[in-house]
Amino acid sequence: MTEYDNPLVSVIVPSYNHAAYIEKCIRSIISQTYKNIQLIVIDDGSKDNSVEILSKLSKEYYFIFVSQANIGLSATLNKAIKQHAIGKYISIVASDDWWLENKLETQVRFLEENPTYKMCYSKANVVDDVGEIKYTYGRKPSSISFFDELLLSTEGSFIPVLTVMYERQLHQELGYYDEDSYIEDWDMHLRIAYKHNIGFIDEVLACYRYHGNNMSSNTVKMTHALIRIVKKWNHISNFAQTIRIWELVAFRQLAKNNKKDAMIYFIPALKSFYKIGFWRGLFNLIFK
Question: In the CATH scheme, what is the code of domain 3-216?
Answer without folding.
Answer: 3.90.550.10
